[in-house]
Design goal:
The protein is an alpha/beta fold and 235 residues long. It has six helices and eleven strands. It folds into two domains: 2-94 and 186-209, Nucleotidyltransferase, domain 5, CATH 3.30.420.40; 96-180, 2-Layer Sandwich (Nucleotidyltransferase, domain 5), CATH 3.30.420.40. Strand 2 and strand 3 form a beta hairpin. The termini are far apart.
Length: 235
Amino acid sequence: MKILAIDTATPASSVAIGEDDELRGLSVNVDRRGHVRFLIPAIDFCLEQAEWVARDIDIVAVDVGPGPYTGLRSGLSTAQAFAAAIGAPMVTVSSLTTIALRAATGRRRIWSVVDMRRGQIAVAPFTPLPGGVAPDGDPEVVRPEEFKGMLEAEVGDTLVVGDWQSVPESTWTGLHRVKRGRPRYPSAETILEIAAMKTRHGKTTDADDVRPVYMREPDVQINWQAFRSEGAWPE
């Protein structure tokens, strides 16, 4: 089973391809505005590393968020177009789960963080398990001060992973049972692992049915009502 994995939910875009749990190609670029120009050359590079062509791919996996609108949309549309072109099914993966899966802890409750910009973060709790993690609550979009209150309510030791550097340092004051760790961003290499597991359990979907998880409105919106009132748009 040959898998192409794409992640653009955060500033760290990545593309990976693998077969039967073996990584065959990987490309990573950290640039919050460079998702679009990175993706196609990265896919070509990874295919070349594996000595494959596009139609060799059996599954296309993609991070559907949460994450900022522009980057997320870039990866999702590219993954859908690729899958549709070769007739491959898709696997969707959460950015918060992808980050939590690589958290280095065996006992602490994990909180995964993605920077949503505009002073907000997406967070979700996970319980570590042998060989993986399990969701322990619903994802939410909150402000740093709200997240601090959530951490203060924890009764045990906690590990925060993901883009916790995006919140003010004062957030961590007094949180003596909270440890901060890596990874900072999700990666396509981890998505390969999740996609292989989901595919074995039959959890694939058609490209047309894949939807992003924005968890809030896009950063850029047009006030269409005001636009029409100025006579620039026909009623």
